[in-house]
Specification:
single chain, about 300 residues, alpha+beta, Beta-lactamase, five-stranded antiparallel sheet, two-stranded antiparallel sheet, 8 helices, 15 strands, about 30% helix, disordered N terminus
Length: about 300
């Protein structure tokens, strides 16, 4: 016990001031203990993060391997767009439909890619909304469903309710409103559901996209908001299955991402409220690296 305490104190001295401790635990209500990853070193306390809300989940068992205040609903910014995309897919949109952009599709916040009277396919709008997190693409797609924005948001809330995500609620479909909230644990469940949809997973893995507008021939080029697509987490034995970023002043820098490692299990990491972009990226890499290093998964013959 004394050795463990000394190790913890020494580790604390080596870590930056002002960061919050992340704890780890084995938790699952749906699988037996023999299916849950086991921690290798009980004296290893995880990493420190600027993120106020954190969860790392073993995808196969649902076990929570790392957590910090993971049940509290907080603003999630553009991670909202994952639920928007799920409702859009349920609307049976035709990828080849052409949508004309209107002035009212624009929302303050984020980079603008499309202008009034430009025409674009539903498929390109969908990819733009997820990869580049384009807000005008989201609003144009919602309008194209024939639903009012209020009706569409009700479907979003009905969907998360059906998934049992009781700490999640939406005000609007882009993520620009700080009233769009969820807990880190709810977002881990949501990610599992969203990234199981091939079109969502594909769009969130695009590092860049380029398309030509229908009526004026303008070529639009956009880049992913997720720089980790170019990191070790998407190279060699690692693969990013799906991911979505978010940022608002009220939310901080946010990320939900599922990563697969060859020969090992898949993990979903949720980071809410990081202090900066570099913090978000480094904390995601650190949490995933630490979890793979400090847990062993059961082997079944």
């Amino acid at each position: 016990m004394l050795n463990s305490l000394i190790s913890f104190l020494l580790a604390s001295l080596l870590l930056p001031w002002g960061l919050g401790q992340v704890s780890s635990q084995n938790f699952s209500t749906s699988v037996s203990d023999q299916n849950i990853p086991q921690k290798v070193d009980s004296s290893s306390y995880g990493i420190l993060t600027t993120a106020s809300n954190v969860a790392v989940i073993d995808l196969a068992s649902g076990a929570v391997l790392v957590n910090r205040d993971d049940r509290t609903p907080v603003p999630i910014a553009s991670i909202t767009k994952l639920v928007t995309a799920l409702v859009l897919l349920d609307s049976n949109l035709n990828w080849n439909d052409v949508v004309t952009i209107r002035a009212e599709d624009w929302r303050d916040g984020g980079r603008r890619y499309l202008w009034p009277d430009e025409q674009i396919t539903v498929h390109d709008l969908f990819d733009l909304s997820l990869a580049a997190s384009a807000n005008e693409a989201v609003i144009a797609l919602v309008r194209h469903t024939g639903l009012s924005e209020a009706e569409f948001v009700q479907k979003m809330n009905d969907m998360v309710s059906s998934l049992g995500l009781n700490n999640t609620h939406f005000i609007e479909p882009t993520g620009l409103h700080h009233g769009n909230v969820a807990s880190a644990r709810d977002l881990a469940v949501l990610a599992d559901h969203a990234f199981a949809q091939a079109d969502i997973a594909r769009a969130t893995r695009l590092s860049e996209l380029s398309f030509t507008l229908i009526n004026n021939g303008r070529v639009v080029r956009a880049f992913s908001t997720n720089v980790l697509l170019g990191s070790f987490l998407n190279n060699r034995e690692y693969e990013i299955v799906g991911a979505k970023t978010g940022f608002l002043d009220e939310a901080g820098y946010c990320l939900v991402m599922t990563v697969a490692k060859e020969g090992e299990a898949s993990l979903t990491v949720v980071i809410l409220g990081s202090h900066s972009k570099p913090d978000r990226w480094q904390e995601a890499k650190g949490l995933i690296d630490w979890t793979y290093d400090n847990y062993v998964w059961p082997v079944f013959n």
